[in-house]
Amino acid sequence: MSHKNKVDSELKRRFQENDPEALRDVYVAYKDELLNWLIRYNLNMEDRLDIYQDAIIELQHKLVTQKVTLEKASIKTYLFGICKFLAIRHHKARKMEQVSDSEEQVAEIKVEEDLSENSKLLALSFKKLGAACQELISMFYYRGLTIKEMVELSNYKDENTVKSAKSRCMKKLKELVSYEK
């Protein structure tokens, strides 16, 4: 077993024994390298630190609860993976905030004369939907998010719940469009 693998095995064991020094050792060992690596996601230092700290907490939780054994990956590799996931999620959330700011503009669409009759009907019907339905339909069709991404960025419990809610919203929108005709 190489020195690196021995160190990793020792750290994993210490994590499982809830050794607080193990957490500190990992935190210090990879901090600078990961903070520099996170620059590629155009994050400021505060966001990079938040992501790194969240990743350390997630790593500790996974190792202590033995939800991950890290048989094929080192702690460093797994930590990089967690940071990457958190950075992407942070980036998407930031995009959502930007889109949410512009949603007010979208919600107040002025039906202009150059729109086709069907587009006018759709815009008018869309405005009559509840806020939750407008959000779901916007996330899926306007922003192009997947169902999985919608679950991550919303308060829905799983993909099936999002699918059902989106289906009900689309049904309601179709009914409103038909009623307006």
UniProtKB/TrEMBL annotation:
Q: Which GO terms describe its molecular function?
A: sigma factor activity
Query: What species was this sequence derived from?
Result: Nonlabens spongiae
Q: Which InterPro entries match?
A: RNA_pol_sigma-70-like, RNA_pol_sigma-70_dom, RNA_pol_sigma_r2, RNA_pol_sigma_r3/r4-like, WH-like_DNA-bd_sf
Q: Which UniProt keywords apply?
A: Sigma factor, Transcription, Transcription regulation
Q: What is the lineage of its organism?
A: Bacteria, Pseudomonadati, Bacteroidota, Flavobacteriia, Flavobacteriales
**Biological process GO terms, please?**
DNA-templated transcription initiation
Keyword Kinase carried by entry = no
Do the record's keywords include Transcription regulation? yes
From which residue to which does the signal peptide run?
Answer: none
What family classification does the UniProt entry report for this protein?
Belongs to the sigma-70 factor family. ECF subfamily.
Superkingdom of origin organism:
Bacteria
* Protein name, per record: RNA polymerase subunit sigma-70
